[in-house]
Amino acid sequence: MDSRLKTARLAHDLSQSQLAKAAGINLQMLQHYEQGVRDLSGAKLATLLKLCRALQCSLEDILPDGETTELLRLYTAEQAG
Fold first, then answer.
1. Between 20 and 30 A from 20 (CA), which of 7, 38, 55, 76?
2. Phi, psi of 51 (to 5 degrees)
3. Which domain CATH number covers 49?
4. Does position 4 have pLDDT exceeding 90, yes or no?
5. 23-77 pLDDT per residue, tens
6. pTM value?
C-alpha cells in the first residue's frame, strides 16, 4: 500500500530526491516515511510543515491518520480563543 505522502508526491510529479530537496529534508528520511519504516505522524512538526509547503498541501493530505491533524485543529481553536 502506498503512503499518502508518496501519493501526494507522485501527484505533483516529483521524484523522491526532488521532494527531499524542495522540502530541505534528508532523502533517506523521506524514503523511510514513504516506506513506513518511520511513522510520519511522529515526525517533527517542522518536517511536516516543510513537506506540506513543498507539496502545497495540508497535513491531512500526507498524514496516515487523523489524530495529529485533529490535535492541531483543537490546539489552533484553543489559541484563537
1. 76
2. -65, -45
3. 1.10.260.40
4. yes
5. 999 999 999 999 999 999 899 999 999 999 999 999 989 998 888 888 888 998 9
6. 0.86
The number of domains in the chain is: 1
Residue 23: all three cell numbers together: 522540502
Look at residues 76, 79, 14 and name the one whose alpha carbon lies nearest to residue 51.
14
Would you list the DSSP string of 6-23? HHHHHHTT--HHHHHHHH
Contact (Cβ atoms closer than 8 angstroms) between residue 62 and residue 5: yes
Backbone dihedral angles phi then psi of residue 24, each to the nearest 5 degrees: 70, 35
For 69, residues 6+ apart whose C-beta sits below 8 A from its C-beta are 58, 59, 60, 63
The residue type at 55 = L
Give the CB-side neighbour count of residue 17, counting CA atoms within 13 A: 0
Domain that holds residue 57: 4-80
